[in-house]
Amino acid sequence: MKLDGKVAIVTGSASGIGAEIAKRYVSEGANVVIADLNLEAAQAKAAELVAMGPGKAIGVAMDVTSEDAVNAGVAATVQQFGRVDILVSNAGIQIVHRIEDFPYADWKKMLAIHLDGAFLTTKACIPHMKSQGGGAIIYMGSVHSHEASPLKSAYVTAKHGLLGLARVVAKEGGSSGIRANVICPGFVRTPLVDKQIPEQAKSLGISEDEVVKKVMLGETVDGEFTTVADVAEVALFFAGFETNALSGQSLTVSHGWHMG
Ligand code: NAD
């Protein structure tokens, strides 16, 4: 098992990509904290994973934009499992509008969840990682960390920002054995994407089928969605890679949508 005895916090892991990463980590022997907005959903996901094993899991309520909630969730992790080896900052939402129609409140919400959330969870985990001699921090970026799309000013800005944060964390954390990397998935069929299909069809004046075939998968090498399992595999690779040789990097998993 690649993560035997490791302790991981995965934010936004009651659903979608985060849930699959948590499952993969537990299957590799890690003890995982499901940190999500809704306590019941987080605990239900944790119970599912405990039944599967061999790692353990607990659910905690954490709004990643709240410093108090983040600090409490990290403290609960250490209280329950004694340490924090892996942070996957994954919680995220999508809001799409043309810039001139983008409500300022929605812009701030997007940046708060994606960037403040990444900052606050990193800040809370680093002291534990330092005192333990190292750790792995993984940010959920996107192809939109490297490419732009219409309607996604806030998302693209936030996902590009994560590259900068990861590079700084890699430099500051190097002497303490703390590695920071970014996973950049293409479109993955989760609730976050399902919600966008009719919204984009309306904003762009095209059919939902065209949104999927042209907007989402048009630039891939094979017209295929990336899967939650694909992303979890990369998250396992980053978590299990034990040296600073792999730090400050981003890895794109997108059926060739973005190459580079
Ligand atoms: P999802 O909607 O299935 O899951 C997101 C989870 O984040 C939910 O459980 C939600 O409750 C949680 N969440 C939302 N706001 C939160 C907050 N403030 N605090 C804590 N938790 C919060 O979405 P997903 O597709 O699994 O997305 C996960 C991450 O992957 C996001 O960062 C997203 O930007 C990124 N991503 C998704 C895709 C894709 O195509 N689905 C592609 C690239 C990157």
TrEMBL record:
Keyword Glycoprotein: no
Signal peptide residues on this chain, from the entry's feature table: none
Domain of life: Bacteria
Protein keywords: Oxidoreductase
Keyword Oxidoreductase: yes
InterPro entries: 3-OHbutyrate_DH, NAD(P)-bd_dom_sf, Sc_DH/Rdtase_CS, SDR, SDR_fam
Pfam families: adh_short
Family: Belongs to the short-chain dehydrogenases/reductases (SDR) family.
Full protein name: 3-hydroxybutyrate dehydrogenase
Source species taxonomy: Bacteria, Pseudomonadati, Pseudomonadota, Alphaproteobacteria, Hyphomicrobiales
